[in-house]
Amino acid sequence: MTQFPFSAQPKTLFYSACIAASLLSGCASSNAPQTPTATAAVNQFDDARHRLIATAQDERNTTALLPYLTHPEARYRQAAALALASVQDKTATLGLQPLLNDADPAVQRAAAYALGQTGDSSAVVALAARVAATPTSGQRYFYEALGRCATLTSLRQLVRAGASSADTAALAGQAWGLLRAGIRGVTSEAAVSRAVALLDQRNPLAARRGAAFTLARTPRLDLTLYQAALTTATTDPDAITRAAATTALGKVKNPAIAPALVALARRDPDYRVRVSALRAMNATMYGPVKEAAWEATTDPSAQVALTAAEFFLAHASGEQGILFLEKANKLSNWRVRATLLAAALKVGGTERGAIRNAIEQRYTAASDPYEKGYLLKALSEDPAAYEFVQKATFAAGQPLVVGSYGIEALVAIRRLPDFPVAQHAAFALTMRRAMASGDVTLMSTAAEALRDPKLDLRRLLPDLSFITTARDKLVLPRDLEAWQALQQTLDYLNNKPATPTPVAKAASHPINWAVVGTIPAGQRVLLTTTKGDITMQLHVNDAPGSVASFVELVRQGFYNNKTFHRVVPNFVAQGGCPRGDGSGSTDYNLRSEFGDLRYGEGAVGLASAGKDTESCQWFITHAPTPHLDGRYTIFAQVIQGMNVAHRLDIGDKIVRVELVR
Predict the structure, then answer these.
(1) Which of 277, 295, 317 marks a domain boundary?
(2) Cβ count within 10 A of residue 462
(3) Closest to 475 measured CA to CA, from 612, 592, 589, 607
(4) Would you place residue 165 in the very low, low, confident or very high pLDDT band (cuts 50, 70, 90)?
(5) How many other CB atoms sit within 10 Å of the CB of residue 364?
(6) Is 412 left (phi over 0), alpha (psi -120 to 50) or beta?
(7) 651: left (phi > 0), else alpha (psi -120 to 50), else beta?
(8) To the nearest whole number, what is the mean pLDDT of the chain?
(9) d(CA 315, CA 343)
(10) Is 534 in the same domain as 656?
(11) How far is CA 493 from each of CA 180, 347, 446, 517, rounded to the nearest angstrom?
(12) Burial (Cβ within 10 Å: 0-12, 13-18, ≥19) of residue 549
């Protein structure tokens, strides 16, 4: 990717060459933040100590941060603790634990958050003691941290801690603590029972939400015994609680829940609940729910309509494919239509050839690259479409997006049980061709196929040198995701331990403090899209490196005319990829900044391939997504135009992004 020059926009603050040595022992690095000459604070980083703390966080320098935990001023103790929440170094646990009893409540909360982010089970005793103490304003932080660090043994303490409490903060804290443990797979029957009890509408909203998310997000639960309570929870006055409870209802192993899901899919006023109801439906209840699902394919919300089409693709049985073809042809939304066409081809029947031909004709006539991609995805349900998809994937001069969808479709076709044995060798050569293409998405997808033991490609391609050759042509950190895919494949095929990911160090792209100095604490951004305008507010105090990078790209016009390439109903709308398929990046990576922020509705986060690999892609959440908390940098919040964000779909354009007052 071409590197863009720095913005020539004048700066409002200038920095001297050095920070006073008394602020931090040792000499400052060449990129150390420097003392401003201006007197008016633009944001908290007008303070030199805050810049030093943020720089140490960015450099993952625990040693530099630890002295600040005992600083006389509470604001620096708090900042250092929050910095350690991003560093996540267990050697800081002993230094953080005393701050749970700090005189300043904000420091207590920051320490609890940092301990939870570190996930060190050795902090359980201190956290449990804090939970058992007199309730404070930071009660939820202590419970959540305990949940993040809990083992099955300490989970019992978490379950007991709030069981007899009438304190609303304790009830909410316990619910969210159970969620944090549950997301990690740490649960028990007592924990599940307690979460169900917290769904009672007499409990505070925060407790009900936390409990509903606990039951929705904890893996491998069988909630059949709690059907009645979950059904009641789907009538909660709060739509977010209803949506999460509806997801949890899908873990009831009883087809008798079908009428409740049908009612929610048809009548709930919030589209996110309707999406959850459709997702909770499964093959065992296909007959009783299919009419409601058919109705949902024409729902006013495109997200609901798509989810309904996905239900048929996943669960349709006993139907003729021609029925889905006829219904698809009546729809105007191309994404919903293409998904139903995939269902038609998957169900098949005597008209399967005609269905395949109809999809191929639509592909030829389509002009939108994303629609073309979805039609190739639809064709992946039929082995007979292999040659058509292969030609489309490698056609010269087409948008990158088409090839990206095409290579995924080819691998999906190969995984079909009726893929002809006679074509196995040809498929292997196609994967080798993709690896040699130089296209990072084709290479990544081919690499994943090569290490799939079910495909047995090693037998057909014994010489692995072509993978090494392809890997060595990648440019880091720009092509990090492709590098990861190829290296994982080489390690797997050579029976070697996993190679650590070469995460870029702070020195390769340090925080640009000159840019940070130009960003007001309440800086707004106007995002103009083909669906309407969205206004976001940047969190420069919580994520200075991420915000500075975003602002630099905005000033360069980097995001103008990009697309939203990924939209998952009731989850996220994601854009900012220079390729338009999710594989694009800048030629630098950022370090993750896990400030004391949560993924509520309209949170704006940076996409990544793992900690400290963020770049230019970002996403907007449709609803609270607590399983993302502390794992993906939040750098902004939608403050106006959330109704537009809910309507975004794949292929919608980011017309321009601009900084506004």
Answers:
(1) 317
(2) 8
(3) 589
(4) low
(5) 11
(6) alpha
(7) left
(8) 93
(9) 9
(10) yes
(11) 36, 35, 14, 49
(12) buried
Which of 284, 317, 350 terminates a domain? The answer is 317
Residue 459 lies in a domain: no
408 occurs within a structural domain: no
Do 576 and 638 lie in a common domain? yes
C-alpha 577/C-alpha 553 separation (Å) is 12
CATH code of the domain in which 161 resides: 1.25.10.10
Tell me how crowded residue 628 is: count the other CB atoms within 10 A of its CB. 17
Distances (CA, A) of 512 to 6, 51, 59, 551, 593: 10, 11, 13, 11, 15
Could you tell me the pLDDT band of residue 26, with boundaries at 50, 70 and 90?
A: very low
Q: The pTM is what?
A: 0.93
Give the angle 353-357-363 at the CA atoms, nearest 5°.
145
Q: Would you say residue 10 has pLDDT above 70? A: no
Confidence of residue 606 (pLDDT cuts 50, 70, 90): very high
DSSP SS3 for 333: coil
Give me the amino acid identity at 446: A
Q: What is the pLDDT of residues 454-506, one digit of tens each?
A: 999 999 999 999 999 999 999 999 999 999 999 999 999 999 999 999 998 99
Position 162 confidence tier, pLDDT thresholds 50, 70, 90: low
Q: Which two tokens stand for residue 269?
A: 């006023």
Same domain, 160 and 260: no
Range of the domain at 302: 241-246+254-317
200 and 300: one domain?
no
CA distance linking residue 35 with residue 23, whole number of Å: 11
Residue 605 and residue 532 share a domain: yes
3-state secondary structure of 575: strand
Residue 167 pLDDT class (50, 70, 90 cuts): confident
pLDDT digits (tens, 9 = 90+) for 35-60: 444 446 799 999 999 999 999 999 99
Total domains in the fold of the chain: 3
Higher confidence at residue 430 or residue 4?
430
Classify residue 403: in a domain, yes or no: no
> Does residue 118 form part of some domain?
yes
Quick: pLDDT tens for 190-229: 999 999 999 999 999 999 999 999 999 999 999 999 999 9
519 with 645, same domain?
Answer: yes
List the structure tokens of 274.
């309707």
- In angstroms, the CA 170 to CA 163 distance is 9
Q: Which string of DSSP letters, residue by residue, matches 67-84?
A: GGGG-SSHHHHHHHHHHH
Token output for 114:
């940092």
Q: Report yes or no: 618 and 602 within 8 Å, Cβ to Cβ.
A: no
Question: Which region holds residue 574: left if phi is over 0, alpha if psi is between -120 and 50, else beta?
Answer: beta
